[in-house]
Specification:
The structure holds two protein chains of two kinds.
Chain A: H1 9-32, H2 35-68, H3 78-83, H4 88-101, H5 111-118, H6 136-160, H7 167-196, H8 208-233, H9 242-273, H10 276-285, H11 290-308, H12 312-316, H13 318-340, E1 346-348, H14 361-371, H15 378-388, H16 395-411, E2 415-417, H17 423-444, H18 457-461
Antiparallel strand pairs in A: 1-2
Helix pairs in contact in A: 1-2, 1-17, 2-4, 2-7, 2-8, 2-13, 2-17, 4-6, 6-7, 7-8, 8-9, 8-13, 9-11, 10-14, 10-15, 11-13, 14-16, 15-16
Chain B: E1 4-10, H1 13-26, E2 32-34, H2 42-45, H3 53-79, H4 92-118, E3 139-144, H5 150-162, E4 167-172
The chains are: A mainly alpha, B alpha+beta.
Chain lengths: 465, 179
C-alpha cells in the first residue's frame, strides 16, 4: 500500500483565491504606501519569504535531527514535515531577489549600512569590526550560497528520506542528516544576521540566530500539526493518531518556551546593560504601534501555549491544538514584522542630504516622545533616565518624562513612521500562506505519504505515550 | 482497617497486564498492585484516574510566582528602595529570573512533598510488606479478604489461577503492624 496525496482542483482553487488576496495586498501596499521607495511593500515581501523559508528549512532540520537521534516515531508524519520545504524553492529565490535588488537601489531595506559603506569616512568606530560583513558583493554572495544550499538539501532530503529501505540507505540518510544539520546551523544563523539584524547595523544581539531558529520552530511545528490533522480529516494518514500529534505538541510547547526564554534574555540584558546601541532597538519600536504588537506577540507566543497546551489532554485534543497552532503561526508573523518593519518604513526629513536615511538615536527618541504622552515603559526611558535618576525620589519619574520630551523638541521631531500592521500585512500574509501551502501540497503529492519499508516504521506505528 | 489479605503473584509482565485487564473487567476489587518496575499501560488496564499531581504542581508554581514578585516588589520598592543603574524601583524585567526560579522551586518541592505524603513515604511510617519479592521478580495483586466468606476467597483464588498466577497465598498482619 503506497498511498499518495491527490492534489485536487478544489483545494487548488482555494489556494489560488488565497494567492489572489495576497496579490491584492501587494498591489495595495505598493499603491497606498509609496513612501520611502515603497518600503512597506518590500518589507512585507522580506518578512513573509523569510518566515516561510525558515519554516521550510526547519522542517528539514527536524527530520534530520530525528534521523540522527534515533527518533523513530516520526516516520508516519515525516513526509508531511519534509514537504514543507517545497516553499524553499519560492522563498530562497525571493530572498536572493531582495539581495540583488539592493544593487539597483530599488528598495531601501538595507540603506542604513549601505549609506555607511558608501561613505567610509562616516563609519562609526563601533562598526569597523563589522565592515568585512557589510560588503555588498560578499553579502549578496552569502545569500546566494544559502539559497543554493537550501534548495539542494531540500531536493536531496525529500528524495532520499522517503526511500530508506535497508541498512545501507539508512546509513547514507544519517550522513545526509549530519551534513544538513551543520549547513542549517551555520546558514540559519548567518541569514538572520544578514537579512534581519543588518537592517540596523549598529544593533546586535548575540542570540539572534537562536531567536529566529526558535521562531521557525514554532511556525514549522504548528504547520506540521495543522497539516497532519487536515490530511487525517481528508482520510489520509489513517495510522497517525493522537500520540503523534501529542509529540508534535510537546515540541511546539517546548519551542514556544524556548522562544520566550530567548526573547526575554535578549530584552532583559539590553534593558539592564543600557548601552545606547542596544536600547535603540527597543526605543524605536516603542510608541510606534510596534510596542503593542511586541506584547501581543508575547501573549500569543508565550502565555497562550503556556496556559493552554501544558496539559496532556490539550495536546491530544485536535481542536485545541489546532487553535493554538493557528494562533502561534500568526503570533510569530507579528514577531517577525516587529523585527523588520520599523527601520525601513521611517522617513526622516530633517537631513536633506539623504532623503530616507535611517534614524539615529536622538531622532528615534524624538519620535518616541512625540508618540507617547508620558513615558510608561522603563526600557525606553532608561537611556536618559540613567543620567537623571540619581535621587531616589518619586519625582524622578516626572523628571524623566520631562527630560525626554525636552530632548525630543530640542532635536526637532522630523521623523515620520509609515510602519504599521494593517490590512495589507494581513492580505499579503494570507497570500504567502497560499503559496506555501500550494508548494507543500505539490511536493506532498509527488511521493507516497508513508514509507513502509523504513526500519522505524513499526516503532512509529506502535508509538504510544 | 483490614489485616487479612490474599496475594496473587505473577512472574511475567505481559501475563500480569492481561490479568489486570480481566480482573478489572470482571469487577474484582483490587486492594493494591505491586510491581518491581513500572509496567507500561498498567494504569489504563486498572482504570486509574489521571493523576491530579500536576494540578497541585501548577498551584504551587503560581504560589511561587506570587511570593517572589511580592517579596522582591516589597523589598525593592517599599522597604529598602535603592536605585540600581537608573532603573525604576519596581524593575520588573530584573525580577523575572528570580520569579522563574522560585516558581520552579515551589512547584518541584511542593510536588515531591505531595507525592511522598500521598504515597505514605514520610519518615516514621512502617510499611506493610506483602511480599519482598515484588521488588525483585514478582508482580502481585493484593485483595482485601477481611470479613469475606471462604467461598468468596476460593473464588478469588480461581480467578487468579485462571489468569496465570504462579503463586497464591494469604497473609495476616497483626493489629498495629504498619500504619
Amino acid at each position: 500500500m503506497t498511498e499518495k496525496f491527490q492534489f485536487d482542483s478544489k483545494l487548488k482553487k482555494n489556494l489560488f483565491i488565497a494567492m489572489g488576496l495576497g496579490l491584492v495586498g501587494l498591489v495595495l501596499a505598493f499603491v497606498l504606501y509609496p513612501h520611502n521607495s515603497h518600503s512597506r511593500f518590500w518589507t512585507n515581501i522580506l518578512v513573509n519569504s523569510y518566515y516561510f523559508t525558515g519554516i521550510g528549512i526547519f522542517g528539514l532540520f527536524f527530520v534530520a535531527a530525528h534521523q540522527l537521534g534515533y527518533g523513530g516515531w516520526i516516520v508516519l508524519v515525516r513526509r508531511v514535515i519534509m514537504s514543507m520545504s517545497g516553499f524553499v524553492f519560492v522563498g530562497a529565490p525571493l530572498l536572493l531577489l531582495i539581495a540583488l535588488l539592493t544593487w539597483g537601489n530599488v528598495h531601501n531595506i538595507y540603506d542604513h549600512w549601505l549609506h555607511v559603506i558608501k561613505h567610509p569616512e562616516s563609519l562609526p568606530e563601533s562598526m569597523t569590526t563589522k565592515a568585512v560583513f557589510f560588503n555588498l558583493t560578499f553579502w549578496t554572495a552569502r545569500i546566494a550560497v544559502y539559497a543554493i544550499l537550501w534548495m539542494l538539501f531540500a531536493r536531496i532530503i525529500t528524495k532520499y528520506f522517503g526511500n530508506i529501505t535497508d541498512k545501507r540507505s539508512y546509513k547514507i540518510s544519517k550522513l545526509i542528516a549530519a551534513m544538513w544539520i551543520v549547513v542549517f546551523a551555520v546558514s540559519e544563523s548567518f541569514v538572520s544576521w544578514d537579512m534581519i539584524m543588518s537592517i540596523d547595523p549598529h544593533w546586535y544581539s548575540t542570540l539572534f540566530g537562536w531567536y529566529n531558529f526558535a521562531s521557525y520552530g514554532c511556525g514549522a511545528l504548528s504547520f506540521a500539526i495543522l497539516l497532519t490533522i487536515y490530511l487525517k480529516s481528508k482520510g489520509y494518514l489513517a495510522q497517525v493518531n493522537e500520540n503523534h500529534i501529542h509529540d508534535l505538541g510537546v515540541f511546539l510547547f517546548g519551542f514556544s518556551i524556548f522562544w520566550t526564554y530567548l526573547w526575554f534574555s535578549q530584552y532583559m540584558l539590553q534593558w539592564y546593560a543600557n548601552i545606547p546601541e542596544d536600547t535603540m532597538y527597543w526605543v524605536k519600536r516603542a510608541g510606534t504601534g510596534f510596542h503593542t504588537s511586541m506584547f501581543v506577540s508575547l501573549a500569543i507566543n508565550f502565555v497562550l501555549p503556556l496556559l493552554v497546551i501544558i496539559k496532556r489532554g490539550a495536546k491530544r485534543n485536535f481542536k485545541t491544538i489546532s487553535f493554538v497552532s493557528v494562533m502561534i503561526i500568526i503570533g510569530h508573523h507579528i514577531d517577525f514584522c516587529n523585527m523588520v518593519m520599523y527601520e525601513p518604513n521611517v522617513i526622516s526629513t530633517g537631513h536633506g542630504e539623504h532623503g530616507h536615511h535611517a534614524l539615529n538615536s536622538n531622532e528615534a527618541t524624538a519620535l518616541y516622545a512625540e508618540n507617547t504622552e508620558a513615558v510608561k515603559e522603563p526600557a525606553a526611558a532608561t537611556e536618559h533616565a540613567a543620567t537623571d535618576a540619581v535621587t531616589a525620589k518619586p519625582e524622578v519619574k516626572a523628571a524623566e518624562s520631562a527630560h525626554v520630551e525636552a530632548h525630543g523638541h530640542e532635536h526637532g521631531s522630523t521623523a515620520k513612521s509609515y510602519a504599521g500592521f494593517g490590512l495589507v500585512e494581513i492580505l499579503i500574509f494570507i497570500g504567502f500562506t497560499g503559496v506555501f501551502l500550494y508548494m507543500f501540497f505539490n511536493e506532498l503529492s509527488k511521493h507516497p505519504l508513508v514509507n513502509e519499508q523504513d526500519p522505524y516504521f513499526k516503532e512509529s506505528q506502535r508509538h504510544h505515550i | 482497617m483490614s489485616n487479612k489479605f490474599l496475594i496473587g503473584m505473577w512472574d511475567h509482565e505481559e501475563v500480569f497486564l492481561h490479568a489486570a485487564k480481566h480482573l478489572t473487567h470482571d469487577g474484582v476489587e483490587i486492594h493494591e498492585t505491586l510491581t518491581p518496575f513500572p509496567v507500561h499501560g498498567l494504569e489504563h488496564a486498572l482504570g486509574y484516574r489521571e493523576t491530579r499531581l500536576h494540578t497541585a504542581g501548577f498551584l504551587y508554581g503560581i504560589t511561587g510566582t506570587t511570593m517572589a514578585l511580592l517579596l522582591m516588589g516589597w523589598i525593592m520598592s517599599v522597604n529598602y528602595p535603592i536605585v540600581f543603574g537608573g532603573k525604576p524601583f519596581f524593575a520588573l524585567p530584573s525580577f523575572i529570573p528570580i520569579t522563574f526560579e522560585l516558581t520552579v522551586l515551589f512547584s518541584a518541592v511542593g510536588m515531591v512533598l505531595t507525592y511522598c505524603t500521598r504515597n505514605k513515604l514520610f519518615p516514621g511510617y512502617v510499611p506493610r510488606i506483602y511480599d519482598p519479592r515484588t521488588t525483585d521478580d514478582r508482580f502481585a495483586f493484593v485483595f482485601d479478604i477481611e470479613g469475606k466468606s471462604e467461598a468468596d476467597v476460593a473464588k478469588l483464588r480461581t480467578i487468579c489461577e485462571s489468569n496465570g498466577a504462579v503463586e497464591i497465598k494469604t497473609k495476616e498482619f497483626k493489629e498495629g503492624d504498619g500504619l
